[in-house]
Specification:
The complex is a heterodimer of chains A (339) and B (144). Chain A is of the alpha/beta class and 339 residues long. Chain A has two domains: 222 residues, P-loop containing nucleotide triphosphate hydrolases (Rossmann fold, 3-Layer(aba) Sandwich); 91 residues, Helicase, Ruva Protein, domain 3 (Orthogonal Bundle). Helix content of chain A is 57%, strand content 8%. Chain A has 16 helices and seven strands. In chain A, helix 4 runs antiparallel to helix 5. The N terminus and C terminus of chain A are likely disordered. Chain B is an alpha+beta fold and 144 residues long. Chain B has a domain of 90 residues: Ribulose 1,5 Bisphosphate Carboxylase/Oxygenase. Chain B is built from two helices and six strands. In chain B, the strands form two sheets. Chain B has a four-stranded antiparallel β-sheet, with helices on one face. The radius of gyration of chain B is 17 Å and the shape is globular. The two termini of chain B are 19 Å apart. Classes of the chains: A alpha/beta (339), B alpha+beta (144). At the A-B interface, helix 1 and helix 8 of A face helix 1 and helix 2 of B.
Amino acid sequence: MPEDSTAKPSLGPGMRTVERPERFGAAAEDAVELELDDDAVVNAQELVRDARIDEVLDRLDSELVALRDVKTRIREIAALLVVDRLRRSVGLESEPPTLHMCFTGNPGAGKTTVAMRMGEILYRLGYVRKGHLVSVTRDDLVGQYVGHTAPKTTEVLKRAMGGVLFIDEAYHIYRVDNERDYGQEAVEMLLQVMENQRQDLVVIMAGYKKEMDRFFSDVPGLSSRIAHHIDFPDYSIGELMEIASMMVERQHYRLGEDAGPAFEEYLAMRMTQPRFANGRSVRNALDRIRMRQAIRIYEAAGRGRRLTKKDLVTIEAEDILKSRVFDGGAYAPESIGRS
Amino acid sequence: MVNSGLRITQGTFSYLPDFSDEETKSQIQYGIDNGWAPSVEFTDDPHPRNVYWEMWGMPMFDLKDAAAALFEVKRCREAFPTSYIRVSLYNSKLTKQTTALQFIVHRPPYEPGFRLDRQESTDRIVRYTLHAYALDRPHGNRDA
């Protein structure tokens, strides 16, 4: 049996503390060597072109509105991974960076959307081997009786290996107020794998800012194992309009002449009302507007009007202005009835 | 026939030197890429006719990456360092539904080997059988 396969896997923290000083030493030597090498520049261009990293980043830029922090961070990660690969090509070893992430922000700020993209991005960058995304919530991790949680969590982690594990509403996993809750066990398992199998999977947690902060203070050691804490700010009205026009376009609709300003007016009012959820509210509003457009067309057709393709595509201002938001006050968007 | 130090040869690759973790991983990945499901099994009975080994957890049908299977191999190795451990890759395709690839990934540090037993029977008939020295001790207590 060769040495490396008989050696027991290190699950405790002891082994790592031994390794660290060596790594630091190696890194210091690397720096000296790096100065000696001149032809790395040529490789860089090739590598960037081969991985088509620019393409990925450009797509991210064009398809997601605003989110400057997120894009900058992804750009940085991309650059680091490219440089890392270059360094490896000239024989400089360094530990791959930890890429566990935590996305915080208000509802509808784009956390899930970005996370869904992350798998592909990291795959293109060559950080994860398969690039699939396993999306889970508390139910998938925490069991219902003693001894149920660990295998359940392990199962999920194994499924995610080689890709990205996305834990939505991560703060639900652990409930401080209930001592008998099995969430603790899932968190411990998660911590262990996040630390020991860093090269095998990337964990992305997402949740609302306040709840996540509480979750991190309840679980010591978790926050520090996540290298990237990225906050998703709320969108401005201009950005929301941009999102709206993107959504409209993607669904092959067009805003009529007065519809644009009407929708902006709608958003301005909606933003001041409770339970505003950024991008998600825009999406919901558009869905309702489409329904109103549909009924308008349906009724017009019933009256014997001839329809053109343009009629099917165009959203008119009246579709928007019928919204309950304009009645002021009594707002219940998610309830059945006129909204 | 004293044959101490005999390495048992079962499954694929058993005449080769033992695989490193990295080599094991790429073999498993080959199987996964073919749509086969890896599973980890272990035993302390090296007899060649012992085909049903104990299962280390369920077969892993929905894996994308071999790292997860290797993770289970390592956990099994940690729990049973003196057992034999093998990985089976099961092809679940209709009309196949059989083990496609199976190889040993861990052996006990010392393999005591086998002896040949002769049994005198009627009419000067001699029956032969293989006796694994490892089986002289009771199951679960065979730390070679």
